[in-house]
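Section 3.1: Structural characterization of target chains.
Under the original work plan, the team committed to producing a structural model for every single-chain target entering the pipeline before any wet-lab resources were allocated. The record below documents one such target. The sequence was received from the expression subgroup and is listed exactly as submitted; it comprises 437 residues.
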Amino acid sequence: MRLTVIGTGYLGATHAACMAELGHEVLGVDVDPDKVAALQAGRVPFHEPALLAKHTASGRLRFTTSYEEAAAFGEVHFICVGTPQRKDSEGADLRYVDSAFASMARYAGPDALLVGKSTVPVGTAGRLADTHAAEIAWNPEFLREGFAVEDTLRPDRLVLGVGSERAEALLRAVYAPVIAAGTPVVTADFPTAELVKTAANAFLATKISFINAMAEVCEATGADVSVLAEAIGHDDRIGKKFLRSGVGFGGGCLPKDIRAFAHRADELGVSLAFLREVDAINMRRRDRVVELARELCGGAVLGARITVLGAAFKPDSDDIRDSPALNVAARLRLDGADVTVHDPEAMDNARKAFPLLGYAVSAEEALGGADLVLHLTEWPQFREISPDTARSLVSRPRIVDGRGVLDAAEWVAAGWEFRALGRPAPGEADRMGRLKR
């Protein structure tokens, strides 16, 4: 089939390349001529493992800035533009979605199928269907940064929000190889399809914030949240995924999506107030890392040399949007600390957004002379750092594991003062247990 993909950011570029991988002829569309030129030349403007090979290997993918060309080219048009948080409220900014649909509808014929993939407030698809003559469908994405190609080609489900048998048939034809491989297909009305994505994100954010709230209780009682999470995770009704306590979630999806969901619920007269507490718990974990840094530096970080391992909001990504690591780094810098950051992929993006922080080209350089180390992005490279080697580089062997993945016993044995969120300092558990009895 001949498909167009409107918007060539993270979602759009990935979707376009993967649709070409499935055998379709694909035309990507973007209003930014520089982005189009880069993509046409085979340069992907963000870090996503496996995407570059998919992008450059296929001769079935090209790019343009012309909506008119796109309308004439494609049978199905996927809208993959961003929905950032509005500056004046918690709600989603739908300007880009509305503009993309209007532009395509202006040139596309009445038989065109315009398919939204962006995360939008419930009711958006119905409003667009009432506004434009072209047929509308909604096919939400469920991509994890770092695994986007896998999640597109081998998703755990396909959700097709359609208003006609024709729209469903066209989308099933688009995804025929994926469906043939056994992927479940859920066919739904517009509002249900929209809610699947926002509800999934809300649930995941709630699960992460739940275990982080338990970490707060553990810190107050001397309990160990890692053992707690393991114990409750054995319950099949709960499961172990997303039960690791740490500095919390960030990125361009979960934070703004749960805020937009709560905002939309308010508009509908439904209370999702718990999502605001989920958001608050998440932000408090960043506060706790800052507090631990101050405690370990004797009450204040003024003049302290602090190494932050991580800048991206998660590993296998160069995305720094709402990054907990950079948020903590910037706050400590404002408190007077000399902060040095290292990240395997996100250094360029971090420098642009936080030019006043220091940056090191390697973890070893970043550790040199440090008074305190903060492990805040879960890159495998950081887990592999030898505590003995690291101790030989720093000025004072003190570390906060903000992701709960380092081996505390190994670091303590190497002479480090080790702290982790929701876990007692070595020797503290017994003392706290006696105090609470």
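The domain at 2-188 is CATH 3.40.50.720 (Rossmann fold).
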